[in-house]
Amino acid sequence: MTIQTIGIDLGKTVFYLVGMDCRGEIVVKKRLSRPQLVRYTSNIPACLIGMESCGGAHYLGSLLTAQGHRVRLMPGQFVRPFVKSNKNDYVDAEAIAEAVQRPTMRFVPIKTTDQLDLQAVHRVRDRLISRRTSVINQLRAFLLERGITFRQGRALLRRQMPALLAQTEEILSPCMQRLLLQLWQEWRELEAQIETTTEEIERIADQDVACQRLLDVPGVGPLVATALVAAVGNGSAFARGRDFAAWLGLVPRQSSTGGKPRLLGISKRGNPYLRRLFVHGARSVICHANRDDHPLAPWITSLESRAHRNVLIVALANKLARAAWAVLATGVPYRAAPHPAAVTR
Asked: What is the mean pLDDT of the chain?
């Protein structure tokens, strides 16, 4: 009995393992705890191990790789078609073992410790920003119920809050005054935490060579550069920039049949946080780029005259994502190619 392929259905403390031989027949079925799994895999010959890319998969993948196994992580959506009959843990493990053997399967590179740390910093910052937005919205709602309104944007409200709190004794009850003061203090604490986290990200970007190259790409700042490195490493998982843009979900979704292509809105697949950053970067380029000497200005102006602004922003985000992947994968500094319209002028 020689195990060639193993599929592992991951859990928090319990793992289900299915092993197959060279003919694809199941030869091993086990339910193991985490220590038992590590001991079992260390005592068997090196083989191909497949797992779904989820929480804890990267750590376990690094551990099994150090034992000499070939570990492949796969998105769960690509494993689902291999699930037969009713779903249970052993069936899931069997589906993973079958899926990992497919030559056309798409795999997720195992993240390094530095990537996981950087990804964690970004996720903390994103959560803090979401909390800040929630606090501001609640504060605005309380004020609106008392007939006090402010225009859109948090900058003006932040400047007016000290004066507002000093003048609320005449129009607000003591309970509401206390709640507003509590929300204001929470807002300031969140702002300080966001600023500290942002400074940490900028410090990492200053020390990383790949991030420094990415900063030359229009619309890419420390946030986008570090998030890109944390998500895809050196970009080796993609054969070309077009594949990376498709993974980000910045390409049209297709619903074609009978030889008739039908394109819908963007697919929004992949990493939603990174896609959002690229879209914001593209919006910044469109709003602030100097149309007289910017290398992308002719292309932006040409598309702007015949497409909706949101289409323009997403199309530019696609272009910037492909350029960023090229810089990351090749190690060559960014050089903007002149647009044909700019050359003929």
From this structure: 90
In sequence order, the 6+-apart residues with CB closer than 8 A to the CB of 335 are: none
How many residues are recorded in the chain? 345
Angle ∠(297,333,267) on CA atoms, nearest 5: 60
Q: Return the CATH number of the domain spanning residue range 5-99.
A: 3.30.420.40
Is a pLDDT exceeding 80 seen at residue 345? no
Residue 312, token pair as written in the block: 């323009």
Vertex 327, ends 249 and 250: CA angle to 5°? Answer: 10
From 200-204, 247-251, 289-293, the region with the lowest mean pLDDT: 289-293
| Spans of all domains in the chain | 5-99, 113-207, 209-343
Q: How far apart are CA 331 and CA 213, in angstroms?
A: 8
Closest C-alpha among 23, 2, 1 to residue 101 = 23
The pLDDT of 303-307, averaged and rounded, is 88
Q: Is residue 343 predicted with pLDDT exceeding 50?
A: no
* pLDDT for the residue numbered 338: 59
On whether the CB atoms of residues 129 and 223 are closer than 8 A, the answer is no
Q: Which two tokens stand for residue 324?
A: 């960023």
b/e burial code for range 243-264 (CB count within 10 A of at least 16 → b): bbbbbbbbbeeeeeeeeeeeee
Tally: H helices and E strands in the chain: 14, 7
- CA dist 103 → 97, 98, 106 (Å): 13, 11, 9
3-state SS, residue 17: strand
The radius of gyration of the chain from alpha carbons, rounded to an integer in Å, stands at 26
Query: Which DSSP string corresponds to 145-180?
Result: HTT----SSHHHHHHHHHHHHHTTTTTS-HHHHHHH
Distance in angstroms (rounded) separating the CA atoms of residues 69 and 49: 7
From the list 232, 216, 131, 141, the residue with the least C-alpha distance to 179 is 141
Q: What is the pairing mode between strands 48-52 and 5-9? A: parallel
Alpha-carbon span 154 to 239, nearest angstrom: 42
Q: Quick one: tokens of 344?
A: 């003929």
In eight-state DSSP terms, residue 260 is: B
